[in-house]
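Contributing: when you submit paired examples, paste them exactly as shown. First protein:
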Amino acid sequence: MARVKITMPEHFTFRTNIPVRITDVNYGGHVGNDAILSIIHEARLHFLTAAGVKELDPGHTSLIMADAALVFKGEGFHGDVFTISVTATEFSAFGFELYYRITSDRDGRSFLIAEAKTGMLCFDYTVRKLARLPEGWEERLSQAK
């Protein structure tokens, strides 16, 4: 069976902490795969805010997710506080890639929970078409802390 592989960057510019909610836990007693995507969405908003970029900015350039890849590495549980490291790379005329590494410290050890990548495209909701990456975004996203 072919597996998804993500080549992760060596350095991440931004970190945020997100607690695992009981609603993130599935019938297996651990964080569900759907919850991981929601958690990286929240981390993305924290990252964009730190960069001074809005995901949805009516009348201006907004962002849409073109693709997502998730690789599960370990289990997360209710009560964990995930540390999500985020970085932006691979800028193009219309978008960029965001990479995420999710870890959790538990019982004096650090556990790798998941790695992910989302392809982000600039979008103009007024005309409902792709838009060019605004001037200054690459620098702001590359330096978000």
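Second protein:
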Amino acid sequence: MATLPVILVAVDGSNQCMDTITYISRILSPNQINIELFHVKTEAPEAVFDLGGAEGFSTYEAEISNWNSLYGTQIQDFMDKARKVLTDAGFPPDAVNATIRSKKIGIARDIIDESELGCSAVVIGPKGFDTLPDFMMGSIAAKLAESITHVPLVIVGSQPEPHKVLVAFDRSRRIRKGFDKVSRLFSKSLEEILLCHIIRPLSVPHPVTCTYFTTRTEAHWLDEHSRRITSRAGAIARDADTRGFGTIVVGRRGTTAVEGFTMGRVTRKILSLAFNKAIWIV
């Protein structure tokens, strides 16, 4: 019997993370996937490390102990709720595993190391508990976006619509192979998959250089040309918004990949423009 693919879901206990759990429960195929809920536990709040090593720990030893007890309970409660969301969506109980592990090196590094043990994709929310503007990724998500290149990475925004998938299709072999892999993970209940290919023209004449241009035709010209002069990333994000696609699948690097860079500029822009979507980087 073939081994089922494992989806590694990095969890932190935040409300945004529960949105991520809800999303994967709806877009993934329940009977063909195993889910690994993975949490890296820190030994103390981040603020304690700003106090200066062992001295800070000894000063607040009682507070840290209480925090650890409460933190452990909250994470376990979160795991139980996440498991219930997934099993209620049709995932068999034995297909959902929860792991809470003490930090070894760093949260991002530990997630990367775990992903190298044989998972088929890594899923994470964009911010966790970070109080950042909606269009900004948190530090953990940003590190994973740059570092996880061996398997698809899914960055799930705020409550994306799970039933419609837009594929940013180019001529690269990577997007074709990547989409072939991730499409096998998707639920059969998907309503629509759109292959979207943006062609950037070599040039677009400026209105003032057109002999036919007059004030009367200004609105018409802008309407006809606005779609041609937008950026590729902007066009993809706009189409996803206007047509109700909550998931965007994009290649990590396009046809003009530059050695030394792990992510192409179009993919990087999509991450910032489509912050309320689920972005599958393949």
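If you have annotations for the second protein, write them as plain sentences, like these:
Residues 216 and 222 are 12 Å apart (CA to CA).
The domain at 1-157 is CATH 3.40.50.620 (Rossmann fold).
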